[in-house]
Amino acid sequence: MDRLMNNEDVRAKRGKVIMELLKGKQIATRLQTLLHEPAAQDDDDGLGLAQQLALQILTSFTETLSELGSCSAASSQIAAVDKSRKKAPASEVKERRGCYKRRKSLDSWVTVSSTMEDCYNWRKYGQKAIMSSTYPRCYFRCTHKYEGCKATKQVQKTKENPIMYQITYFNQHTCNKKLRHLHDTGDSDHEDLNLISFEANIQSKQDQYSPNPMSSISQVKEEFKEVNNAQSDQNLGSNEAKSTLHDPWQDIDTELEPLGYKSTWTPIVGSCQENVGSGFDRSYEATSLQGFEEVNQLGNIDYSWYFNQVCSEPYL
DNA sequence: AAGATTTGACCAGT
DNA sequence: ACTGGTCAAATCTT
């Protein structure tokens, strides 16, 4: 087994994570400035630069995720050593339905995000009303479960800010299959496990599944215009139809849901707090360009995501 | 037809 | 007994 990380290492990792996020924020600010320049929006060079900046932001987030991933695993290892573990008795495999080992102590971490989306393929396997919560909790497992990937996540709207999702992840992905969505090039050799690629996540208008990051700024702009037009035509319903995945919360608070399309361009990591969340709301009421610019105020992201290591079992 | 989602049932932990 | 996590049949979507 690799050597365990000491506290020093963990601190160093945290420092690196913060640096990466600050870098991302800086680039996002540049992008925002650029987008405020009318000339840049019509000019190919300007758009090219914007795309480049956007890619840098994504790379920054990717680096961060990568660091956090290793932190997570390392912390699990520490916890595994520190805690006296009680090994559950090996229960015989039952054939009956609903038989499972209840989650007790797994490698887990929590993020708060404005979107349920991330760079992996998930399959929903359950939904539950939770006593202490207004909103139901949805259960997802990795699409590649049967290839041995044990990653799961639970998604729940936050009480304080219902446009935000609290996402609890359990177990790291072992499938190493990042999101390719429906535009599967079949070129798995080119998958960079630590890179969230804009290009790989392009999604056509026909795609019925969950929205994805866009390929370019201009595409985002076009998309935004469409969304705005659709909305001025009227109703959330037609936009919600973009996803076949029924929003379990929409019946509860449809008025709080800006649009089914929001996750198209919302950041997939980090915690977008109240100001950003309400920014999204406002952007829908603005003109398409204003809305677009507000959306790009990534500089307002509050990086108050946090890790919550609850582990008494070693990370495998 | 294949794959994804929904939803009621089942089961473990507290 | 209650609550929450998972299973799997039914249903839906592509």
From TrEMBL:
Residues 228-242 have a biased composition (Polar residues). Residues 111-178 form the WRKY domain. SMART domains: WRKY. One of its GO terms (cellular component) is nucleus. Its main location: nucleus. This is WRKY domain-containing protein. Keywords: DNA-binding, Nucleus, Transcription, Transcription regulation. InterPro entries: WRKY_dom, WRKY_dom_sf, WRKY_plant. It comes from Castilleja foliolosa. Residues 227-247 are annotated as: Disordered. It comes from the Eukaryota. The keyword Transcription applies. GO terms for molecular function: DNA binding. It is found in: Nucleus.
